[in-house]
Automatic annotation (TrEMBL):
Classification via Pfam families: Lectin_C
PROSITE patterns in alphabetical order: C_TYPE_LECTIN_2
Top-level taxon: Eukaryota
Signal peptide, first to last residue: 1-17
Domain C-type lectin: 97-238
Protein name, as recorded: C-type lectin domain-containing protein
Organism: Caenorhabditis angaria
UniProt KW keywords: Signal
Amino acid sequence: MLFYIALLISFSKSCEIKKTQLYYTYDSESDSLTGHYQRSTYDDQTGETTIHEWKENIDGPILKPPTTTTTTTTTTTTTEPKIYNCPDDWLTFSRDNYKWCMKIVLTEEITKNSAQEACEKLGANLTGFQSSSERTQVASKIKLMVATNKDALNNYISQTGGKFWVGAERKKSCAIANSCGDETVNAYEWTDGKTSGTDGMKWQSGQPDFYKEGQKCVYISSSKYQSSRHGLLDDDACAGTDHVDGYICGKSAGSL
Ligand SMILES: *[C@@H]1O[C@H](CO)[C@@H](O)[C@H](O)[C@H]1NC(C)=O
């Protein structure tokens, strides 16, 4: 980039203007000044300039433009993975790279399909359990909750206990009983779209039995007197409502 600087000394005498000029050219790339000297007379009536003296390559610097400092600000934006949290009234479970939120809902006589629809209204699905820890924590929470709910408490202290729908279904490929090998790991799958594997799928003894090939849905049991039932899973008829005390919804905190 080139800048032109001119020093001008002028004298006026009638119509003549005498000018002594130093022209400097500043080259910012080489940070150098080169210039020429010029003495001239300008006639303001004729508009003519008469050059009397001209010298090339005058050494600089006589006038050096102030050093301009170019400050380059580099803004580095690091994108941190966003951690979403569960709503306040949902239980939070940390999974590998997201938080899973569960809500235990106490309600009487609800079919599995209606429970799933109710979860969908909360932006969720009936939940699966990714691990035994998730399952047992939910079982403990259910135990506390039923203590304050008369009807659920009645089931809890009854012999069979109460049922809470969860998000698991019999695989279509296992529509025939005992056609899938070990039924405890092969026959049912989580349906919430996120939960995987069978670590959190712990059944009551003798379950799942796919009784009369009609039990395609799954509940977690809440039972005071039968520790072989409390917090464990069982398959049941999806349309059944007997002893049902509620359901458990699940959603990823990330999809809020
Ligand atoms: C519900 O589950 C289905 C899979 O069955 C999944 O595609 C969907 O994303 C899930 N919805 C939510 C809110 O997690």
